[in-house]
Amino acid sequence: MTPSLLPFRGRFVAFTIAVLMTLAFGIAWAADSSSLWLAIPFGVGLFLTCVGIHDFFQTKHSVLRNYPIMAHFRFIFEAIRPELRQYFFEGDKDGMPFSRDRRAVVYQRAKMALDVRPFGTTYNVYGDGFEWMAHSISPRPVGKESFRIMIGDVDCTKPYSASVFNISAMSFGALSANAIRALNGGAKRGGFAHDTGEGGYSPYHREGGGDIIWEIGSGYFGARNPDGTFSPEKFAAGAANEQVKMVELKLSQGAKPGHGGVLPAPKVSHEISLTRGVPMGEDCVSPSRHSAFSTPVEMMQFIAEMRRLSGGKPAGFKLCIGHEWEFLAICKAMLETGIYPDFIVVDGKEGGTGAAPMEFVDHVGKPMRQGLYFVHNALIGIGARHRIKLGAAGKIITAFDIVRSMALGADWCNSARGFMFAVGCIQSQSCHTDRCPTGVATQDPTRQRALVVPDKIERVFNFHRATLHELAELTAAAGLDHPSEFKPEHISRRISPSEVITFADLYPSLAEGELVAGSGNPRWRRPWDMAQAHSFRAVT
Fold this sequence. Notes:
By secondary structure, the protein is α/β, with parallel strands linked by helices. Helix content is 41%, strand content 12%. It has helices at 13-31, 36-57, 62-66, 72-88, 99-110, 177-190, 203-208, 232-239, 270-276, 296-309, 324-337, 358-363, 368-381, 399-407, 417-422, 445-448, 453-477, 503-506, 514-517, 522-530; strands at residues 131-133, 148-151, 160-163, 165-167, 193-195, 211-216, 244-250, 261-263, 284-286, 315-319, 343-347, 389-393, 412-415, 491-496, 499-502. Mean pLDDT is 89; it is low at 1-8 and 83-98.
């Protein structure tokens, strides 16, 4: 894609007008130096020109570097927003009013600014859907540890000690090179993991040296043959890098499960071509299904092969739950083959994407909490939960989001949008246009220069550290020593103005081995009977 340097494409209109105004009135004033009416607009133009030059070269605000002068209006509106929001904002679709406040929390923590708030909560605590954590009368001391878990079962020879909060899958190609550099540099500084997304393990991931979870999708980018099939040799070569700590098979992502994707030919730059192993000048297709396996048993064998080719590193898979019998078929394949993944990441349909059809974004796939509850209990039901660690992803931003997920069975959480906010995303929703105003989601080098990597590395690190600090405070307030101790009983939900239930009532648990023994619960019995280890199709 050839970036446009024309100032009248929109970004530099105000700056160009200021320069022209300075020149025009400066020349006129020079010709008639006695006229003060010419000196005033010359002074205004000169002042704005100086502001624009400063904006262009400063390193703290990406949007100012891309939109000199004009972006100041955004900061003015942000400054007065607390007084105006009650008139303009009513809350978002998932019951979290003033979702912009959640984004503001990330910005404040990333900048290490004070993020406390006066006058209490903005939530309607008597409204349906409000949720809260129970605290203890006898809180524990706030822990100083970084909260880590060990991932890797008995078949894994190189287990990984992971943070309970990591960067979720976002591909190079969807994100800019500078965004990848900033995210991975922050992960290196903070000692947490960075999931590559299915776009491949790029040179920009390697630069930072941060821990990598290498995600392999249906396009097998970075580990594919010319015909698009999986290449064991290329995969082994990439996975051998010490920076790669885990390998992850992507079955689906939350925002568009079962859809696949296409990166149009004009966006397949030389560096994306090299990273993904695809030819330039052609659409880069990520199919909706895998070609390396077609049955649950074959999928387990493929995961075992990924673990072997990586030299014994933790191998697992990520999915958004769709047909329940299909995941239970995978469970039956585990039992039949004796092959168990080291981890499973449950993505929710509320997760993000750079581009997807409206119907998929809004109405396809199981939300994260329902999916996490289902997977957690399915593994309990086959007696395998202790062997497999669970990650959760899908609109996880705050420490309470982590607590809520861990109470439902997650061992760790991944966040995409939270870390995107930390590197400067302002949710302009222009990811698919290649015209991201902050340089986060664009391949245009004139736009992504706005993202100053050293500054954003610090913000990624700060956001992670501050979120874990808040997680430690919530854990201590609940009277616990580690967030892994959160249980469904710790979280309550209002289901009507006069009724409250805990997550233990809302999400009842299976007994250990109950599915194998023969559950009498029809909610589980029917999909279990429909599942078969040698096919993803349901038994009817």
